[in-house]
Design brief:
The complex is a heterodimer. Chain A is built from two helices and seven strands, in the order αβββββαββ. The longest helix of chain A is centred in the first third of the chain and has 24 residues. Chain A is elongated and about 60 Å long. Classes of the chains: A alpha+beta, B mainly alpha.
Chain lengths: 128, 167
């Protein structure tokens, strides 16, 4: 059975389908309006994006470097950072859960969570 | 194949893997996981396990990760590469003897999944559960890139065995 091409084609297709399904679920379940900023696993700030009237920016300074965060009505993102890859800046502004901005070198995470404060849709993790 | 010829072949594969790795690392990553890329360098690990054996494949991979991180990485990216590479190698070494060249593409896909799982685990310990949101994307990337690289390897391995490495 394991020597057959068809077994592996089916298995790989199944992995692909499950992943696509999980991706769709993550995006569809996206809701919430509270942005949570964590550095090194510790929450440092919580912003209710639905109450933001005017855009503003601030710096998040960690042990490893600095990220400049921009908050706009309904969305949040990193606009500049001194990390080597700049992936967090390239990610752009986010407004839904299931699409966190992550700066690995600085261990910074910005994610949208439900109003209740718990993670909105985290697969494979019990609710906090 | 003589011992010196094996050594030379392994060295060529390691050199090619390193060059591929360096070129690939110049392409900006689509996701914030250092080291996520097409994984073309894995082609040489697959070639090594098919043409030479498990030990040589491990050596090719180890040299590529260590020197690759030295040339164009950081201590952090070495950690991600090493975690991904270790899992990728374990899967390759276990599956290849059972599946052979005909199913090299499947070895490639499963080892690519293992590689991305390793990187995701390191990221999980670094920043917490938020990175799990990337798991589906990483799995899809592994299937796509693993299939492409694996099919190439499936085609190349028999040709190289017949022509390039005649005793």
């Amino acid at each position: 059975m394991w020597k057959k091409q068809s077994t592996w084609i089916l298995l790989v297709s199944a992995v692909l389908l499950v992943s696509l399904g999980a991706l769709a679920l993550l995006r569809l379940a996206g809701g919430g309006s509270v942005a949570r900023i964590t550095v090194d696993g510790k929450e440092i700030k919580r912003i209710d994006l639905s109450t933001v009237a005017e855009a503003y920016e601030f710096d998040v300074e960690g042990e490893n470097g600095k990220n400049r965060v921009r908050v706009e009505p309904g969305r949040i993102g990193v606009i500049s950072a001194d990390c080597p890859d700049g992936v967090c800046v390239a990610h752009g502004m986010i407004e839904k859960s299931g699409d966190p901005v992550i700066c690995l070198p600085h261990r910074l995470v910005i994610e949208i969570v439900g109003a209740d404060g718990g993670p909105d849709a985290v697969i494979g993790e019990p609710h906090e | 194949m003589s011992k010196s010829k094996r050594l030379a072949a392994a060295a060529i594969l390691a050199g090619l893997a390193l060059v591929t790795f360096v070129i690939e690392s110049q392409i900006p990553p689509p996701l914030p996981l250092p080291g996520i890329r097409l994984g073309l360098a894995n082609l040489y690990t697959l070639m090594a396990v098919s043409l030479l054996g498990r030990k040589e494949a491990g050596a090719v991979l180890l040299i590529r990760i260590l020197l690759g991180s030295l040339f164009c990485g950081t201590l952090l990216s070495l950690l991600y590469s090493a975690a991904g590479g270790l899992l990728c190698y374990l899967v390759t070494a276990l599956l290849y003897p059972a599946l052979g060249d005909r199913l090299l593409w499947a070895v490639s896909v499963i080892s690519a999944l293992a590689h991305n799982l390793g990187q995701l685990l390191v990221a999980y310990f670094a920043v917490g559960h938020a990175v799990l949101a990337y798991a589906p994307v990483l799995a899809i990337a592994a299937v796509a890139a693993g299939t492409a690289v694996g099919l190439l390897a499936s085609l190349l391995a028999p040709i190289l065995k017949k022509r390039a490495l005649r005793p």
